[in-house]
Fold this protein.
Amino acid sequence: MPVLKDKELRIVGFLCNWCSYGGADTAGVARATQPTDLRIIRVPCTGRVDPLFVLKALFGGADGVLVSGCHPRDCHYSVGNYYARRRLEVIKRFLPILGIDDRRFEYTWVSASEGQRWQEVVTDFTARIHKLGQAPRLADASPMLKIAELALSSLHALGSNLSAPLDELKAAIKAKLPDLECVIGWQKGYDGAHAVPLFMKTPEDVDKLIWGPLNVMNPAVYLPDFKGRKIGIVVKGCDSRSVVELLQEKLINREDVTIFSLPCEGTLDMGRVNEKLGRYTKIDKVNFDEASVYITADGKEHRFCITEYAQGKCYGCVTPGAVLADVVFGKPVPVSPGKFTPPELAMLDSMSLEERMGFWKAQMDRCIRCYACRNACPMCVCRDYCISDSRNPHWLDQEATPENKLFFQTIHAVHLAGRCTGCGECQRACPVGIPILALRQHIARTVSELFDEYKSGMNQNAVPPLLTYATEEKNIHERDL
Ligand code: FES
C-alpha cells in the first residue's frame, strides 16, 4: 500500500548497485516504511546513467525521476559519480526549456549503510512529486506558434563586407594549392542568390570562390571525412570554432589542415530571404552595398538590409574573425563587450513552462523528421551509428509523434552539450524553419555558467567539461530533497 494517501504516481529511480541499491535494501531489511511509487532500475554506477535515460523516462510518462549513487569519493569505479554529477546537473537545468519542471528530476548520494537516509530521500522525493501532481504530457499541451523578434542591435557591425580582400585570399589559396588535396569554400549556387560548397582543386576552381553574407553554410562539416589528408578550408569566425572543436576532439589533425579566413560581418537568414522573394522563376542579378544585399528576381528588386535579415546567431556574434587561422586578410571587425541572449532563446526564456511545452508541441508537429539538422551539424560525428537510427537499443520508434520528434531533438542537443559551437547549421538546414538552435544555445549557456564561462571551440587545447570531471565543483552544489 502506498504510504502517501493519494493515488500512486510513476517515479523511476536509477540506483547504483554498490551504494544506493544497497541503501534501499538496508532500509527494506530494517522494515523502514517507504512510499511505493518508485520503480527501481539497478545500474552498475551513476556513471552508467546516460542523461538520456532521464529524458526517456520523462518522455515515456514518468512523473518523476531520481538518480542515486555513492557519495563523492566513494564510487566503486573511483570517478563514475564525478562524471555523472556534471551530466546530471546539466540535464536538470535543461528540462525547463522543454517545458518540464526541473523539480521532477533529482540526483543524490546514498551509501549502502544509510538505510534511514534512503527512507528519507525516497519519502521526500515522492512527496515532492505528489505535490507537483501528474506530469503534463506533450500530447495534451495546447500548441502555440510564436516567432522570435529579431533584435536589430548587434555586438558587432553587420554588413556585406564589401571591402573584404577576396583577391588577396584567392592568391594565397592558389599559392598553397599544390600542397593540398583541395580547399573547401563557397561558390555561386543554382542561382546568384544562393551559395553552395566549393571544393577547390585547381586555380580555375579558386576563381569561383565567393565571400559575403550569402556564405551561410559551415564548411567544417566536411573536415572529418578528410582526416589524415592535407586539406584547406576557408572559414567565417563561427566556422573556425567548429574547426577548433574538431581539433579538441581529435577528429582532425592540426598539421593536416590549413585555415584561411576573412572577417565576417554577418550572414543572411535564407529562410526569411526566400520567404520575401516568394515564388520566382529567375534571379536576374545580385548586388551589394555596405549594408544590404539587393536581389532582383523576375525583374523586381528586393533589398535585404543585413541588420534586419541576418541569422539570429549573427546578432550576438563575438567571433567575427577566426579563432584559429593560418592565413588571415582584412581588418578585424570590432566587437563590443557584453552579454547577449540570442533572440529565439530570449523568447523561450520569457515563456512559462506550459507555454514552452505548447511551443515545442507546435514546432514538432511541423517537423518532417528528415534529419537535415543532424546531417548539417559539424559536431554530429557518429552518423553511421546514430542512436536515433539504432534498433538495439531502440531509443526512437518510427511513429511521427511530437514526443518522438522532440526526443530526437533532445538527443541531438544533449550529445552536443559542451561541444556545440553555435554555428546554427541545424536550424539553417531545417526545411520547415524550426528554431532548434535554441535548445543547443540553452545547454551552451548552462555549460558556460557551470564551468568557468567555458565556450566550445575557442581553445584547441581545452578539454570539453563534460568529457572530464572535478572532485570539488565550484558551481554544482548538493541540493536538499
Ligand atoms: Fe556507485 Fe559509481 S559505483 S556511483
The mean pLDDT is 93. The pocket of FE2/S2 (inorganic) cluster is lined by residues 16, 18-19, 45-47, 69-70, 75-77, 80-81 (CB under 6 Å). Residues 186 and 197 are 5 Å apart (CA to CA).
